[in-house]
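Students often ask what a holo structure prediction actually looks like on paper. The answer is less mysterious than it sounds. You provide the chain, you provide the ligand, and the output is a string of discrete structure tokens encoding the 3D arrangement of the protein together with phosphoric acid mono(formamide)ester.
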Amino acid sequence: MMRDLLSLRDLSRAEILEMVDAAERMKGELASGTLRRSLTGKIVGLIFVKPSTRTRVSFEAAVYRLGGQAMFMTAQDTQISRKEPLSDMARVLERYIDAIVIRTFAQEDVEELARFASIPVVNALTDHSHPCQVLADLLTIKEKRGSLDGITVAWVGDGNNVANSWIYAAAILGFTLNLACPDGYEPEQDVVDWAKSHGGGKISLIKDAFKAVDGADVIYTDVWASMGQEDEAEKRRNAFSGYQVNSELLAGAPSRAIVLHCLPAHRGEEISEDVLEGPQSVVFDQAENRLHLQMALLDRLIGS
Ligand code: CP
Ligand code: NVA
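The corresponding structure tokens follow.
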């Protein structure tokens, strides 16, 4: 039974698929007005050390839609800013609230919080991974394609936190993932090694973005400089110049391919305006699904 969501690496194939199915059900229930308020009386603390639009608002909305209360905190509002150990914070917060959702830099911090807290902890993005994003994206792909079976996902750009979560998903679910990343910006070797030794997926590191999208059902990109890498933005713009998802690249992919981006997007950098706003882009449906997935997740972790 899933207790926390720290990384997709910790989930089984069945748990991932169940989460996607549950999100699909909750989406239907929300639309039909039959959603059960399973978080009534529950309080969820949201600790955000990095900025957020989608994750913060969709988690807060998920809590409220399920009848619970959300409590948003930034690092500045808490003693995190004065270096209170997370192990202490965990053992205090567990006495007040029912779950912690945290966005921060180090994956180890989220893991430490979970180790010390007796309440569920959810990773809302670290430098290492973004599991809620990729779970919600799987729902989007299932909706648009009808199934997750036999899909090919092309990742174009930085081998970053979101890419790492895609690698775990591909390994666990057993689909094909082509990653086109420039030299020096490949995903973490540990993640690739884990996937190769644990998974059934076909994960390939391909330099050429055109080769990566050949035969792809899904083309995915993300910013070239993630939060915390702002100082490297200029250097990265140069390194990633051949890795923009634009109409030329799309022309090399099957016409059925859908374009995903976790957002926020930098138009004219990792994705062109016309592709982001074009008919193959599903980025706003994708953003919506964060809400449904996180409702399902919170229901699973603390719902009654
Ligand atoms: N995709 C995503 O996590 O967006 P935010 O940074 O706005 O939460
Ligand atoms: N890779 C991006 C994702 C933002 C949702 C970042 O970490 O900034």
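The pocket of phosphoric acid mono(formamide)ester (ligand 1) is lined by residues 52-55, 125, 133, 262-264 (CB under 6 Å).
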